[in-house]
């Protein structure tokens, strides 16, 4: 099954409710703080729709120790199930995705930062960069389908 790589922070997860704790501090990553995060409007419905056709793979910029809370937050918010990978630094996330290309056939990556685009380029997929905390989620499925159609046309030419 083809897959979509989805970044957590800023893309589907509005972390602003805990910014007052200090980004990167131990308090910022406590379970109670993480569970106060909000889902970016439209992200749950869009990913639920895409999950019928694609495997959803999540990538977060947070410590590996937060994996149980991350899983809990995704489930509580109603996001579709999917593999979750966590790396605190951009370098760690880049190394992770290099390994993931052997396990997943990525058609698209969805993020909210320019360095997310670098990761999408590394795995050779469509890069969709949305506005942080606000993404234009209703447009995402159309963009992915358009990309796949164009790739099929080029393949058959």
How would you portray this structure in words?
The chain is of the alpha/beta class and 157 residues long. It has a single domain, classed as HAD superfamily/HAD-like (Rossmann fold). 39% of the residues lie in helices and 20% in strands. The chain is built from 6 helices and 7 strands. Strands 5-4-1-6-7 form a 5-stranded parallel beta sheet, with helices on both faces. It has a two-stranded antiparallel ribbon with strand order 2-3. Strand 4, helix 3 and strand 5 form a beta-alpha-beta unit. The relative contact order is 0.19. The mean pLDDT is 94.
Distance between the termini: 24 Å
**Shape, per Cα inertia axes:** globular
Provide the number of structural domains: 1
Mean pLDDT: 94
Strand element count? 7
Named CATH architecture:
3-Layer(aba) Sandwich
- What do we call the CATH topology? Rossmann fold
Which superfamily, in CATH terms, is the homologous superfamily? HAD superfamily/HAD-like
Output the helix-strand order. Answer: EEHEHEHEHEHEH
Please give the radius of gyration in angstroms: 15 Å
Biggest sheet architecture: 5 strands, parallel
Query: Structural class per helix/strand content?
Result: alpha/beta
Percent of residues in helical segments?
25-40%
Q: Give the strand content.
A: 15-25%
Unreliably modeled segments: none
Strand order of the largest sheet: 5-4-1-6-7
Strand and helix map with partners:
Blueprint: E1 2-7, E2 13-14, H1 31-34, E3 38-39, H2 43-51, E4 55-60, H3 67-77, E5 83-86, H4 90-100, E6 105-111, H5 114-123, E7 126-129, H6 140-156
Parallel strand pairs: 1-4, 1-6, 4-5, 6-7
Antiparallel strand pairs: 2-3
Helix pairs in contact: 4-5
